[in-house]
């Protein structure tokens, strides 16, 4: 028998029993890929089993990027270990290899449930606190399509709740602010090199969004490198309530106070 020229082995002998019926189950295993694919273009799933499709896009991405998505069940189990923080509107979360934001979408769902429960009677209060909740989630991923998909998922969660609560009075202005923050907070970059991975790699910069006096926000930009580097100071160190050193990073840039619905304009200040 002539040997097939193929990159995959197909084992059609696997039989899956479900609800008393037999169903042929075709599984694919990866030997090698003759045509390397870049992470920005489409990939053909090599594992068509429903359960596996939830975790893998392609074996190529697993091999080259270690990409395996975490299932919702495991996401919730881990987040439940810090449930109090996931339900605190102002608590910050960073996922340095966020994939398609499986963790961050669940964090945002929990935060927005709290916002809705507390502030749904006032559209302004809901908008202000929803924007604050969204501003506290950060992610980095080395694959561009993951970053774009993650931003879309996060915006979709906000927009679904916002539009359902305020069908006739929802503002595109508020939606644009959310999109702007997600562009700043969910970054196409490499958490190992601490740089972006576009055509002109630059140090990863995160923006801190702090509420001041009701509807005003204060933006400060920090490089990821400086946030991770605990440099010794000449003056006596500050200590936490537990007696540990307190590290206060210095911002790369600070912006004037601005209304939360106008923060997309702060780049021009």
Can you tell me about this structure?
The protein is 35% helix and 19% strand. With 269 residues, it is an alpha+beta fold. The chain has two domains: 22-65, no CATH class; 72-268, no CATH class. Helix 5 runs parallel beside helix 7 (144-165), helix 6 runs parallel beside helix 8 (172-185) and helix 7 packs antiparallel against helix 8 (172-185). The longest helix has 22 residues, at 144-165. The protein is globular. The protein starts with 7 loop residues before the first strand and ends in a 10-residue tail after the last strand.
Quick overview:
The chain is an alpha+beta fold and 269 residues long. The protein folds into two domains: 44 residues, no CATH class; 197 residues, no CATH class.
Features:
alpha+beta, 4-stranded mixed beta sheet
Computed over alpha carbons, the radius of gyration is: 23 Å
Oligomer: single chain
Give the biggest beta sheet: 4 strands, mixed
Distance between the termini: 72 Å
Structural class computed from helices and strand pairing: alpha+beta
The number of strands is: 12
Strand order of the largest sheet: 5-6-7-8
Provide the number of structural domains: 2
Number of helices: 9
Strand content: 15-25%
Order of helices and strands: EEEEHHHHEHHEHHEEEEHEE
Mean model confidence by pLDDT: 77
Characterize the overall form: globular
Low-confidence stretches: 1-53
Helix content: 25-40%
């Amino acid at each position: 028998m002539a040997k097939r020229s193929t990159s995959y082995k197909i084992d059609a002998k696997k039989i899956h029993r479900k609800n008393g019926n037999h169903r042929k189950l075709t599984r694919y295993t990866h030997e090698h890929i003759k045509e390397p694919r870049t992470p920005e273009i489409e990939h053909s799933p090599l594992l068509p089993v429903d359960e596996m499709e939830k975790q893998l896009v392609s074996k190529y991405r697993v091999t080259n990027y270690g990409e395996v998505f975490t299932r919702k069940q495991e996401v919730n189990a881990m987040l439940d270990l810090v449930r109090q923080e996931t339900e605190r509107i102002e608590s910050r979360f960073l996922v340095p290899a966020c994939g398609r934001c499986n963790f961050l979408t669940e964090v945002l769902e929990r935060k927005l449930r709290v916002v809705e429960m507390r502030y749904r009677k006032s559209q302004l209060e809901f908008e202000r606190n929803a924007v604050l909740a969204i501003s506290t989630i950060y992610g980095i991923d080395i694959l561009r399509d993951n970053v774009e998909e993650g931003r879309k998922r996060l915006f979709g969660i906000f927009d679904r709740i916002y539009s359902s609560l305020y069908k006739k009075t929802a503002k595109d202005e508020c939606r644009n602010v959310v999109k702007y923050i997600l562009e700043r907070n969910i970054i196409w970059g490499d958490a190992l090199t601490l740089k972006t991975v576009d055509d002109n790699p630059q140090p990863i910069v995160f923006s801190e969004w702090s509420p001041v006096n009701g509807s005003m926000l204060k933006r400060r930009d920090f490089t990821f490198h400086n946030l991770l580097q605990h440099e010794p100071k000449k003056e006596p160190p500050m200590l936490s309530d537990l007696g540990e050193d307190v590290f206060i990073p210095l911002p790369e840039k600070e912006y004037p106070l601005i209304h939360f619905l106008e923060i997309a304009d702060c780049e021009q200040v």
